[in-house]
């Protein structure tokens, strides 16, 4: 059975109604948008104190033209009604704090935990507005930093391989010889090896396929730095996956810092310094194992809603419809 699209313009085809006219009538009359009590300030801030709960997430999203908004959401709502606690234009701590302070102090003190990324602005907002809440930095943002550092090393080696291949090809041409690239034990050339290793570096060794295992063996034999960097990335992932006690995780992270220091990798030292700066908030993950995945999932819903509308032309009306669904 064919699914009927839900956009107003689809009414032309299925019900012989002028979709553009219906859309205007819906916005101006049927929806109640013009009588919306929040209309005057909707583009700048929206707060819903009744949706506050013990566990919140704070993150940023871009509903229109790359314009950033800060969204505070209630994890216990499971992405349905009551999800949105606040939507505030921008990510500046002062502006977001001012909006959230419109929620009564008694309600803000209910919050016991708030998850976030490593943004200093988000942490300042949480500290000012929810003083009783434990601030927890999302583990996946931390792991992504190590993945990025590892992939940067792989890409740098790939460019070197491309350059070496180009020079060898030009030299063979100059000498009037046929150029044959070196083929490694698994059948890849150096360029192919480094290009095709991208995804296996994101995975644990126990999840590699047989071909990925062989490729990894060749890769790590030729590029021992990548093997060491992969080991650092994997060991950090295991710290978050295996440790269940905060004190044990603290000891494991201290050992990881020592390994990073011994490696001499500049990018990993920067990551270690960033982790050290947010040490307490990172370790708070091991209390309830809370992440910001809920906020990321809700951001995906917002993007899907925007896509269904084929973009956002009126940000106030978009926020009106969004809050009707999720606030």
Give a description of the structure.
With 327 residues, the protein is of the alpha/beta class. It starts with 10 loop residues before the first helix and ends with a helix. Residues 1-5 have low confidence and may be disordered. 56% of the residues lie in helices and 11% in strands. Helix 6 (139-175) runs antiparallel to helix 7 (190-196), helix 6 (139-175) runs antiparallel to helix 9 (224-242) and helix 9 (224-242) runs antiparallel to helix 10 (246-263). Strands 1-4-3-2-5-6 form a 6-stranded mixed sheet, sandwiched between helices. The protein has helices at residues 11-15, 19-30, 93-100, 105-108, 120-129, 139-175, 190-196, 210-222, 224-242, 246-263, 266-277, 279-283, 285-288, 293-308, 315-326, and strands spanning 45-47, 55-64, 67-74, 84-89, 113-116, 134-137.
Uncertain segments:
1-5
Estimated share of beta-strand residues: 5-15%
Radius of gyration: 26 Å
Instruction: Note the gap between the termini.
Output: 33 Å
Q: How many strands, which pairing sense, and closed or not: the largest β-sheet?
A: 6 strands, mixed
SSE sequence, one letter per element? HHEEEEHHEHEHHHHHHHHHH
| Strand arrangement in the largest pleated sheet | 1-4-3-2-5-6
Helix content: 55-70%
Number of helices: 15
Q: Which secondary-structure class do the elements indicate?
A: alpha/beta
Highlighted features:
single chain; 327 residues; six-stranded mixed sheet; 56% helix
């Amino acid at each position: 059975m064919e699914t009927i699209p839900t956009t107003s313009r689809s009414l032309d085809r299925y019900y012989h109604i002028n979709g553009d006219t219906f859309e205007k009538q819906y916005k101006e009359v049927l929806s109640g948008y013009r009588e919306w009590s929040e209309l005057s300030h909707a583009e700048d801030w929206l707060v819903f104190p009744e949706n506050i709960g013990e566990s919140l997430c704070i993150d940023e999203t871009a509903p229109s033209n790359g314009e950033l908004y800060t969204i505070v959401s209630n994890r216990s709502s499971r992405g349905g009604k009551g999800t949105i606690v606040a939507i505030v234009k921008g990510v500046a701590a002062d502006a977001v704090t001012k909006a959230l302070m419109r929620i009564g102090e008694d309600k803000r003190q209910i919050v016991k935990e708030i998850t976030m990324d490593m943004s200093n602005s988000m942490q300042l907002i949480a500290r000012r507005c929810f003083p009783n809440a434990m601030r927890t930095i999302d583990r996946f943002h931390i792991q992504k930093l190590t993945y990025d550092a590892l992939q940067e090393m792989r890409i740098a080696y790939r460019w070197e391989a491309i350059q070496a291949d180009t020079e060898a090809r030009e030299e063979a041409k100059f000498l009037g010889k046929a150029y044959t690239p070196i083929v490694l034990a698994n059948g890849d050339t150096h360029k192919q090896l480094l290009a095709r290793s991208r995804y296996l570096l994101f995975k644990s060794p126990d999840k590699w396929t047989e071909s990925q295992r062989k490729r990894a063996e060749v890769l790590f034999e030729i590029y021992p730095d990548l093997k060491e960097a992969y080991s650092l990335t994997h060991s950090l992932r295991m710290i978050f996956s295996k440790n269940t006690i905060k004190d044990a995780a603290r000891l494991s992270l201290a050992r990881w810092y020592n390994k990073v220091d011994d490696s001499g990798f500049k990018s990993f030292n920067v990551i270690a310094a960033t982790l050290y700066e947010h040490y307490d908030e990172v370790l708070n993950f091991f209390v309830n194992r809370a992440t910001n995945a809920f906020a990321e999932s809700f951001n995906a819903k917002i993007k899907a809603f925007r896509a269904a509308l084929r973009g956002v032309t009126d940000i106030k009306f978009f926020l009106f419809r969004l809050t009707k669904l999720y606030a």
